[in-house]
Design a protein that fits this description.
With 544 residues, this protein is of the alpha/beta class. It folds into three domains: 111 residues, Urease, subunit C, domain 1 (Roll), CATH 2.30.40; 126 residues, Diaminopimelate Epimerase, Chain A, domain 1 (Roll); 293 residues, Metal-dependent hydrolases (TIM Barrel). It is built from 18 helices and 22 strands. The strands form three sheets. Strands 1, 2, 3, 4, 5, 20, 21 and 22 form an eight-stranded mixed β-sheet that branches. Helix 7 crosses helix 8, helix 9 packs parallel to helix 10 and helix 15 packs antiparallel against helix 16. The longest helix has 18 residues. The chain is globular, with a radius of gyration of 24 Å. 51% of the residues are buried. The structure holds zinc ion (ZN). Zinc ion binds next to loops.
Length: 544
């Protein structure tokens, strides 16, 4: 990546421009250095640019402010992108062929890592190590299931993990075994995966791996029109990789980070983590890489019956939140006092209430001060709590792709009552004055902002548009959805004065789509492609 010469001037013309501002429609942009010099008429563009400006001809389509993914996981996304992709593998033969091909193409890789396989692709839904040994006997193979709740491994992997017939199942997880011999069959789920397999693999990961993952994520984001992301779970290894990339000029996407808060349960330890986050926020404050705050995960997910609800699930489950109010509030109050932005993962209505109570406690304790806190996901919120979002100035950080009708059947079954008609109530949140910021939560969902926009504007499935929409009254006008994915996402990380709107003086962060969904219809988002991405005046992607 090269840096823009401070005086270089470029005119972009030939496409409609969605500026995101209340200005008349624009025909052209002029970029000088890293900023927009002019956004408006073509005649004005030529005048502003002066002689000698480069002209970039766009052949139709739509220019939009650069997308900001308001909730993502950079290194995990890159890790997922560099694995063998199995999500669209329909059968065992295809899975085996891809494993064998990848192994042959990467002879130096110590392991074969894959992700996304579906139970429906495996005979009887029972993956075995023998199926993988048949195509890769010499190197360990690890394949994450599509839902990240289990992993399928071969014999070499079991060997290096030290898992034998004598290894006990941890509480909450299973090492599948042959009913006759008792030998592990190669399928490991839940805590058996998260407590045995993941820590083992994490310990093998090198800085070189992390750099590779980081670069893969940057390339993927840039090629999807993304000029900024907010990483919702930064740890020391991730931050080190980001800082290395920044020092080497490998940062085509602006990153704002939230430090992940572990929950050992001891207030002094929680406060020490807040202090670490405050120090990191002082150390990392450049326009390309900035640490903004902390992230708490108060509950799990509805699909796994681990999100905290005020009334039980259809099956009677009533899980406790990960952070209760007593544990959460002191850390939230301290983070607020330190001027950090607070993000709270809250999917169920009890978790949302705990988050709101803790944030309200911070306001009561610390008084009037600038603050911009946020709640992540908000999949089901008690109607009584919805107005509190606006009153407390909360950013509702939403991932439309999680509301895709194709992934709703189990979600609805777990709740099982009229709560399902209040899922992902975006317009209700916005009406209270809460700011909606859109993200994708990649790699749990695809990182394309265009799919997100399609689902937001239609409540239909980007995976199977023929499915009935998911509570269509919660669909948003396309222009609003686009603002939530650009300006409001920039607002959510206090970057709205620099980004999110195309107007003179702001950073030249924008993307070009090959079609204009305002003219071609919202459905065209499913086929639309990003043809060009520019961050700070520098092209970061230029493709077909
Ligand atoms: Zn996340």
């Amino acid at each position: 990546m090269t840096t823009a010469h401070a005086d270089r001037t470029t005119i972009y013309r030939g496409a409609a421009v969605f500026t995101g501002a209340d200005s008349p429609p624009a025909e052209a942009l002029v970029v000088r250095g890293d900023r927009l010099l002019h956004v408006g008429s073509e005649v004005g563009a030529r005048e502003a640019a002066g002689a000698g400006a480069e002209v970039v001809e766009l052949s139709g389509g739509l220019v939009v402010p650069g997308f900001v993914d308001a909730h993502t996981h950079v290194l995990m996304t890159g890790d997922a992108l560099t694995r063998v992709h199995l999500r669209d593998a329909p059968d065992l033969g295809t899975i085996q062929r891809r494993i064998a091909d990848w192994a042959a193409a990467n002879p130096e890789a110590p392991r074969v890592l894959g992700q996304g396989w579906l139970f429906s692709a495996v005979p009887d839904g029972r993956p075995t190590r023998a199926m993988l040994d048949a195509v890769c006997p010499d190197r360990p193979v690890y394949l994450d299931a599509n839902d990240y709740h289990s992993v399928w491994v071969n014999s070499r992997a079991l060997e290096e993990l030290g898992i034998t017939r004598d290894t006990a199942d941890p509480v909450g997880g299973t090492i599948a075994r042959d009913p006759v011999t008792g030998e592990p069959t190669g399928h490991i789920d839940e805590t058996a995966m998260s407590e045995i397999v993941w820590p083992f693999l994490a310990a093998q990961r090198t800085d070189a791996d992390r750099d590779r993952h980081f670069d893969a994520a940057m390339t993927a984001y840039a090629s999807n029109g993304i000029t900024g992301v907010i990483d919702m779970a930064v740890d020391e290894h991730g931050l080190a990789a980001m800082a290395r990339a920044q020092a080497a000029g490998r940062l085509p996407v602006r990153i704002v980070g939230h430090w992940f808060m572990d929950r050992p349960g001891d207030t002094a330890q929680h406060l020490a983590q807040v202090a670490t986050a405050a120090r990191l926020a002082q150390e990392h404050r450049s326009p390309r890489l900035r640490m903004a705050g902390v992230k708490f995960v108060v509950d799990g997910v509805i699909d796994g019956c681990t999100a905290a609800l005020t009334a039980p699930y259809a099956n009677g489950a009533a899980p406790e939140p990960i952070w209760d109010l007593e544990t959460l509030a002191p850390a939230v109050v301290a983070a607020d006092a330190a001027g950090l932005q607070i993000a709270v993962h809250a999917i169920g209505d009890q978790a949302a209430r705990i988050a709101l109570d803790a944030l309200e406690a911070a306001v009561d304790r610390n008084g009037d001060r600038p603050r911009r806190h946020r709640i992540e996901h908000l999949e089901y919120v008690d109607p009584a709590d919805v107005p509190r979002l606006g009153r407390l100035g909360i950013t509702a950080s939403m991932q439309p792709v999680h509301a895709d009708p194709a992934v709703q059947d189990n979600w609805r079954a777990m709740l099982g009552d009229d709560r399902v008609e209040r899922g992902y109530a975006w317009p209700e949140f916005a009406e209270t004055g809460a700011r909606l910021a859109f993200g994708t939560d990649a790699p749990t969902a695809p990182h394309s902002p265009l799919r997100n926009l399609y689902i937001a504007a239609t409540r239909r499935s980007a995976l199977d548009p023929s499915l009935p929409p998911n509570i269509p009254r919660f669909a948003l006008p396309l222009a609003d959805a686009l603002r939530h994915a650009t300006y409001d996402a920039a607002w959510s990380c206090t970057a709205e004065h620099e980004r999110g709107v195309l107007s003179p003086g702001r950073l030249a962060d924008f993307a070009v789509l090959d079609r204009n969904p305002f003219v071609d219809g919202v459905d065209s988002l499913l086929e639309a492609r990003v043809t060009r991405t520019v961050t700070g005046g520098v092209p970061t992607y230029c493709g077909g």
